[in-house]
Amino acid sequence: MSKEYQIEDKLIEQIIGLKYNYRPDIIDRRTLEQNFKTKFEELNRVHLSDNEFLRLREEIITADVFVASKKLREKQYFQREDNTPLHYTLVNIKDWCKNDFEVVSQLRINSENSHQRYDILLLINGLPVVQIELKKLDISPRKAMQQIVDYKNEPGNGYGNSLLCFMQLFIVSNRTNTYY
Fold it and tell me: Does the model's pTM come out above 0.85?
């Protein structure tokens, strides 16, 4: 019987085969946000000061899933420190191959009330948009689905107050059964 980490390693290999970059260095909220800042600056050909990035982060993070998904698709506006406008995108909708695709495993988001760990996340331009929870064959995928629901319902969870607010798809699998 396969262990969860073996299932995870095989899936990561497959995702790398789809030309995603594996990022074992992204392990927590700080490294996730630093990576997003780098990808944002590359995509929008801009350099943000630390204060500008903090403001941008506060403006884009929302507990409203619908608003977050709109922000992924639409051009946005941000006022720079020197009062110049910055029109930016989070995802290149017109030319998908110019986006940056990454896979992260075992990301930890600690909040006031919890220590949540996510098996696999798929990132586009540093934003987590797909969460994959894996279970051993003898564990029902419904248990992983319940874990996602529990994470989302926890007060102060990462889904409403971190870059995880951009999550668009949840996938649960025990290799035999997969749900999304």
Answer: yes
**Helices 29-44 & 50-60, crossing angle to 10 degrees?**
100
Alpha helices in 61-174 (DSSP H): 65-73, 141-153, 158-161
41: phi then psi, degrees, rounded to nearest 5: -65, -40
Give CA separation, 63 vs 33, 44, 68, 135, 167, in Å.
17, 24, 8, 28, 11
Over residues 107-126, the pLDDT tens digits come to 888 665 556 788 899 999 99
Q: Which two tokens stand for residue 20?
A: 């995603």
Cβ-based neighbours of 76, under 8 Å, separated by 6 or more: 60, 87, 88, 89, 90
